[in-house]
Amino acid sequence: MNNKKRDITFDIARSLCILWIVGVWHLKDYVCLDGVSEDIMRAGDVITTAVLGAFTFMSGFFLKRHKMRTVSDALLFYRKRLLRFWGLYFAASASIYLASIAGGSPWFASPLSFVLSLLGLSVFFPPLPSTFWYISMLMLFYLLTPLLLVPRKRAGKTMLYLTVEAAFAILWLTGVTEDQCMVFFPMYALGMLVSDKDVTKVKSRRWWVIVCVPALLILSLQMDHRHIALLCWQLLALPLLVVISDLLARNRIACAAGRKVSYASMNMYLFHRHVFLLSVLVLNADSLHNIREAVMPIWLAVLIVVPAITVFSYYLQKVYDRTLSKTLH
């Protein structure tokens, strides 16, 4: 399978994931969903865990291509990562922080929580900020990445990744951190271990994946141990997502939409709360001091607000990339 096909497959996968987060799961905070059963909410929580795991896997999968042989390689890696997203992350988190102060809706527990989030350290100082905890956690994983890329053989990598996971587990057990790093690091590590050939093998066995994975996912819902269940959901849903995305990659419209939504995906995650909040405030002008109680019609959210978030995020990324390119040259 050529690179172009592989890339569009993961573009579509990333698009499906961000549309779930923005267009379904977080939508529940801004529309009226009275009457939704606990079983449906639990299923949504399972899907969301799997989606975040897929995002984390893809981060590791593409970052493993960096070569780490010297300190200069590590510094260059940090520079590229910071330039890629930190400016946008700062703009998103700072603006939501200021808005939350005005509206009495604290995404960050304190000014210190806001600063630590920007440094990728919020996982060590709970409670974690809403939504932005995920980016802060990824920043911590990025900080570790040069070390994670040092071993060249899969056996050496596996031993190192298990050691890091054990360290996260100990930090959680001793109350130093919450459990997010322990839950999602295995997917980041898996992304670094999985090769392009492994992905191709999954796709070649797509009918086995389509038949077996949903059945195993249903069985995993019966598990009593929360953390084992979380890992199972992520591991089982990932091949299903890859297979579905590969099938969609055969459609020209899906490919075109997948590329654009994927390109906008980071900003969609960073700024979707802003657009949702602005929308409910426009519709509920008297709700500034009770913003979490304000809602909008679901048809308006799905047909207008979510597409607006996508378009806004796409062009914001265009402007950011163009500005960054001119600054560096």
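That was protein one. Protein two is written in the same sequence-then-structure order:
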Amino acid sequence: MNISKYLIPCIFTVSLALAQMPWEMPVSEEASTPSSEPEPEPFYSPPPPPPPPPPASSREPAPEAGKTIFDNVRGHAYNPYGTVGAARTVTDLVLLPSDIHGKKFFYVSPIDRLGYTAFDLGGASALLGLDNSVMGSPAALIFGYATPGFGLALDLSLSKSWQTTADDTDISTTNPGDNIGLYFSMPMGSMTLYANASWLTYDTSITMENDGNKSKTDASTIDANVGALGSAGSLNYDAYANVIRTGTATKTGNNTTASRDSHLGLILNFNLGYAALQSANARMIAGLNNAVGIRFYDGANAESNDNIIRATISPNILGEVALVDNWFAFGGAIHNLAFQIGDGDRESATSYMALLHGPRTEGFMGVRYQRTNWAFEAQVSTNPFGAFAGNNIFTSFGGFVYF
């Protein structure tokens, strides 16, 4: 009997059945280790991850809402005529100290002999200014502090001396330029409320006392302002009331005499600035500064004038344009129109009325080179060609570092 004839088909059938059964074989650790051979690259390679952002100090800061390339803090070369709606200057940060908040910069002007810096302090912002009195001397210290809700600034330029003579006379002297100023402002939406007051000695003032006898000569100006500054679309405004007391008074015992110009002034100011032309690279602001007030001259001086009513209108313009390679140019002009009614000397019993333009129109022009973190700014003098004769080509020159 040929057994191999039947055995071979049986072995084939059993092998086929075993192959159809699910077998779970243990996998060794060596078999589970991925192969060291590189896998084939896919048809699409994802792009490399973006580079990390640059440090915060070198990134271009995001512009504030409504701000333009012209609205960085500016120096003394910019906007000498006070056109409303122009960019803030370092001087404006003293008058409106709430604007100090969020500012971080360093500024120095060698021609104007001053420097300012603003920085973070205690969760708010601070301003330190090394400046001069409004009369040019003596030097002044300026301190400012601002939170999101309000700002305060103090201006100190003190120049006093005290001495005692051999005959026991005490002498106190206050020199010209001695000044103390206090400033406050508070933002309210699109409007900022502000108030300030200052005491300036404009001529040498002396107090002498000996054995109860006292004489005093005081030449000073006390100035106070309360107002509101804001905008409505392209129209900007600055409205404020001013009270001023100025003059020289001499007091000896019970007798007091006043200088001819000693007076009390009450003035209302309403200044406007309209961005009449504006694009991404240029703008022009047409301004109109207006003031109307009355002077009450001291009655202690029989030669003084009676009350004077005066209105002043000062049209002004300011324009600026972005040039090539980060260069900017700016300039402006102003002149005054005055209307005045008053009395002459009391002895003559005369009166007068006058309407006249200022003696001339004034103008200025400046340039600015601006990068992300720094800028130079200069105002060109009336006669730039005077540099050939050794004069300074610039009326004002300053540099900024922004942080």
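Confidence is low (pLDDT under 50) at residues 14-20, 22-45, 56-63. Keep this in mind for the problem set.
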